[in-house]
Amino acid sequence: MTQINDVPNVSDAEIEKFEQIANQWWDLSGDFKPLHQVNPLRVQFICQHVAEQQHELFDKNIIDVGCGGGILTESLTKLGANVTGIDMGTEPLNVAKLHALESGLTIEYEKITAEEKAQQCSETFDMVTCMEMLEHVPNPASVINACATLVKPGGLVFFSTLNKTVKSYLLAILAAEKILKIVPDGTHDHDKFIKPSQLIGWAEESGLKCIDASGIHYNPFTENHKLAPNLDVNYILCCQKM
Fold first, then answer.
1. What distances in angstroms separate CA 66 from CA 51, 184, 232, one per listed residue?
2. What is the pTM of this model?
3. Shortest CA distance to 206 belongs to which of 155, 161, 165, 160?
4. Half-sphere exposure of 221 (CA within 13 A, CB side)
5. Phi/psi of residue 60, each to 5°?
């Protein structure tokens, strides 16, 4: 397994970007509207694979890496899991804590990197989620390795990110940011998008085996969203720790 890097794997520019719009995290018609719309698909994909392992989410210990304002974190908590959310953004975490309080949910939120948490809690969690986060850090392989360290042997790790294709540039940046203004201009950098083969390679180097992949298809013009086999824009992977 790859050595966990002691250098903080954080982009100050990326943190600042999400700090500025943190107050919109739970606005269903705001800048995070696409996340709210695709979140049920992520939960569906997770629950499907948990069921295939003949498990359930109830009372499982889960860590949501790069939790932001807590959209997925809360969904998993409502399904009965004990969820910890970690992020390096102060304002998104404040929003997440307040929304959990208002929703009557018990969630542990912590400002810490995945790498630091992995050093503290090796093989502690039944499941790890890391959604739409890898394209916002300087060293995504380091985060993947930390996620592999955090999960127990046999446990599942879920990653979602954006494929590095022409179509992902046209839909996620040109259409969503430049034309339709669904998300703020500059939210994504196409150079930081990750091909599935690259992500799976990093996962395998960290002792994870990819057992399934699906595209998360979101059409910014029609706002339709679905899970489908094509991984050419947004995609989600299910990996298992060997």
1. 24, 19, 23
2. 0.93
3. 155
4. 5
5. -80, 145
pLDDT tens digits for 49-73?
Answer: 999 887 889 999 999 999 999 999 9
Whether 5 contacts 142, CB under 8 Å: yes
Contact by Cβ (8 Å): 73, 95: no
Which residue intervals of the chain are DSSP H helices?
12-20, 33-52, 71-78, 90-103, 114-120, 140-150, 166-168, 196-205
Residue corresponding to tokens 């998300």: 183
Q: What is the DSSP string of 175-236?
A: IIIIIS-SS-TTS--GGG---HHHHHHHHHHTTEEEEEEEEEEE-TTT--EEEES--SSEEE
Q: Are 203 and 238 in contact (CB under 8 A)?
A: no
Instruction: Report the relative pairing of strands 234-241 and 225-228 from DSSP bridges.
Output: unpaired
* Helix H or strand E segment including 2: none
pLDDT at 185: 81
Query: Angle CA(129)–CA(214)–CA(187) in degrees, nearest 5?
Result: 65
Q: How far apart are CA 92 and CA 18, in angstroms?
A: 7
Contacts of 120 (CB under 8 A, 6+ apart): none
Name the 3-class secondary structure at 105: coil
Which residues have C-beta within 8 Å of that of residue 101, sequence separation ≥ 6?
none
User: Would you state the structure tokens that stand for residue 90, as one six-digit string?
Assistant: 């102060």
Which amino acid, one-letter code, is at 92? Answer: P
